[in-house]
Design a protein that fits this description.
By secondary structure, the chain is α/β, with parallel strands linked by helices. It contains 21 helices and 30 strands. The chain binds 5'-O-[(S)-ethoxy(hydroxy)phosphoryl]adenosine.
């Protein structure tokens, strides 16, 4: 955590408090009393608490006897001698009472709609599972899913789960180079993709990207299954590529599930850390599923007739936990929309809410800010009266955006659940239970039952007092936690448990806590940026820049951005003379495209500054804090006299 700010203190003074309506409380699954009972149970018997919930809430083929095995901590094992299957929990157990219930309501980019009942979803999952088996996919094999946000993405996840294969979804916005890296790291032999898809009226040529990734490497891949969706022309490599519909045409709608041990890896999902290489976060089957299931029920107060819309793409963990596993294991109806919030206009989200009768809406602050900026007239055109609960995830929500969400979308009365969590935590960790407690704009409130959090200083000592900030840590293991980093357990131990001698799980976020025990997240304390709710490591972007033949060195920092939360600012040192004028402009443009090619469009720097050098300490460490101040146009108050090259600061500032 090179750039951690010791002694972080909070400057946000937010005192507004909002209580749920009497009507909401009266109908809520959990009220204050029930929540208190859950907290008390977890506090008095942590193991018993989790054991009871796992028995009650999930279907097991072989019941577990041991709840938690901590003999190899921090590699914890949960329910390890039990056997289950995630697809059975999400599908088969609903077929009796909910067979004809709609599991997925889908709307495509162009407005076409489609629904799948639980029975239909089950049949499609079984067909794909059988198709995968016919290609030789077996328990423990990794399958890369590179699909648009359509029902087939959920079908692919559950089909892998059904046969015990481990899925690794790569977000459709990632480049060929990123896809190749993930294929190679996971050692996958299969890719499930589509010809392409439309997003915001633009074609995303997924198959072409897969072809490029496989031309550049990814030699482990044996077969590519291609969903026909965008209708764009693709080239099919003989012997390697096959159509989804052809593979499925002869398959049975029944497929016996593979019962796997609870610790069996359900999925890998790559995410950014503070060093260059993305980490393959490995989640288990039993523990992960329990936590996605419970949090969906508790935080979103899921009821039988809800239409639950989490707007996240299945390529992110939020899509895994709250489009697929959490709501489906509860037998809920899930809304899926393929496109972007502002296409063809800024009313799209609200139009979907009206048309599909969405009751619970869960999105990201970056979308809320973007829509807020476009004005109240858009939501006002639509009937949002079915909505009863709103949610937020991905980054701290600023109180202004929270208030707009509350007033304009929530009609001044709907509870907002601001859920703090991470790819690593599997599901939400600190979040309100909407019928059981008041909320405050900008706070994710309190840890959920069974989750023990704290805020500690540099030495690992819990901080005292309201304004005192520090490192957010989780002090006890929980079932939904990541199990390891794929292929690099030492990195897992160091990155998450190393900082305080294995005492805590270290989240990498700064936080403070108010007098009511409410948590306020202050953002990352490591070299990870949060751009529109997407995690990007500064090192990853720097490596991409340096891979350009004209770049010698690069340093990337974040700076505040009105809509994206954080924008990417890169300081770049070229080989040879620093280019100027038209040459500089052309190079900057080229570098932005280069990063898009290396990582994906989401990582394109907003601001690239060509510099003569980087400010470094005498030990050669880049002074990122100084660069951050320069990027933000702040006055430089730091002492620069200890720099190896103090004169450089002048040049960097003069370029701003
Ligand atoms: C940030 C997304 C404040 C945080 C689920 C975390 C948040 C990182 C919130 C994880 C929130 C997520 N309030 N910050 N409600 N939710 N974050 O892995 O910095 O994509 O560490 O998981 O997003 O991002 P990830």
């Amino acid at each position: 955590m090179s750039s951690a700010d010791p002694g972080i203190s909070s400057v946000l003074a937010e005192t507004r408090v909002f209580s749920p309506s009497a009507e909401f409380v009266a109908n809520a699954r959990l009220n204050a009393e029930k929540l208190a009972a859950l907290h008390a149970a977890a506090a008095s018997d942590h193991i018993g608490f989790w054991g009871d919930l796992a028995k009650q809430e999930l279907a097991w083929q072989t019941p577990f006897r041991t709840v938690l095995d901590d003999s190899a901590a921090p590699n914890y094992r949960w329910f390890a001698d039990g056997r289950t299957n995630a697809s059975v929990n999400c599908l088969d157990r609903h077929l009796g009472a909910r067979g004809e219930k709609i599991a997925i309501r889908f709307e495509g980019d162009a407005g076409t709609t489609r629904t799948l009942t639980y029975k239909q979803l089950h049949a499609e999952v079984c067909k794909l599972a059988n198709g995968l088996k016919s290609l030789g996919v077996a328990k423990g094999d990794r399958v890369i899913v590179y699909l648009p946000h359509t029902p087939e993405a959920v079908i692919a996840l559950l089909a892998c789960a059904r046969i015990g294969a481990t899925h690794s979804v790569v977000f459709g916005g990632f480049s060929a180079a990123s896809l190749k890296d993930r294929i190679e790291d996971a050692g996958a032999k299969w890719v499930i993709t589509a010809d392409g898809n439309m997003r915001g009226g633009n074609l995303i040529d997924l198959k072409k990207t897969v072809d490029e990734a496989l031309a550049a490497g990814g030699k482990s891949i044996e077969k590519v299954i291609v969903l026909r969706h965008g209708g764009n022309a693709v080239s099919m490599a003989a012997g390697r590529d096959l159509w989804w519909h052809e593979l499925l045409s002869a398959q049975s709608e029944r497929c016996e599930p593979e019962w796997v041990e609870a610790e069996h890896p359900l999925f890998l999902l790559y995410t950014s850390g503070s060093t260059g290489k993305p980490k393959g976060i490995q989640h288990s089957t039993g523990g992960y599923l329990l936590w996605a299931h419970l949090t969906a029920q508790w935080i979103f107060d899921l009821k039988e007739d809800d239409v639950f819309w989490c707007t996240a793409d299945v390529g992110w963990v939020t899509g895994h936990s709250y489009v697929c596993y959490g709501p489906l294991s509860n037998g809920a109806t899930v809304m899926m929309y393929e496109g972007v919030p502002t296409y063809p206009d800024a009313g799209r989200f609200w139009k979907i809410c009206q048309q599909h009768g969405v009751t619970i809406f869960y999105t990201a602050p970056t979308a809320i800010r973007a829509l807020m900026k476009l004005g109240d007239d858009w939501p006002k055109q639509y009937d949002l009266s079915k909505l009863r609960l709103l949610g937020s995830v991905g980054e701290p929500i600023n109180p202004e955006a929270w208030m707009w969400y509350h007033r304009t979308i929530g009609q001044g009365k709907l509870p907002i659940v601001d859920t703090w969590w991470q790819t690593e935590t599997g599901a939400a960790m600190i979040a309100p239970i909407p019928g059981a407690m008041p909320t405050k704009p900008g706070s994710c409130t309190r840890p959920l039952p069974g989750i023990f959090a704290d805020i500690v200083d540099e030495s690992g000592t819990p901080v005292q007092g309201e304004e005192a900030g520090g490192y957010l840590v989780i002090t006890k293991p929980w079932p939904g936690m990541l199990r390891t980093i794929w292929g690099d357990n030492a990195r897992y131990q160091k990155a998450y448990y190393g900082q305080f001698d294995n005492r805590y799980y270290v989240a990498g976020d700064g936080a403070h806590r108010d007098k009511d025990g409410y948590y306020w997240i202050m953002g990352r304390v490591d070299d990870v940026l949060n751009v529109s709710g997407h995690r990007l490591g500064t090192m990853e972007i720097e490596s991409a820049l340096v891979s350009h033949p004209r770049v010698a060195e690069a340093a990337v920092v974040g700076k505040p951005h009105e809509i994206k939360g954080e924008a990417i600012c890169a300081f770049v040192i070229c080989k040879g003379q620093r280019p100027e004028g038209a040459d500089a402009d052309a190079l900057i443009k080229e570098l932005r495209e280069h990063v898009a090619k290396e990582i994906g469009a989401i990582a394109k720097p907003d601001d690239i500054r060509l510099a003569d050098g980087l400010p470094k300490t005498r030990s050669g460490k880049i002074m990122r804090r100084l660069l951050r101040s320069i990027a933000r146009g702040e006055e430089i108050t730091q002492d620069v006299s200890t720099l190896e090259n103090p004169a450089i600061v002048k040049q960097l500032i003069s370029k701003t």
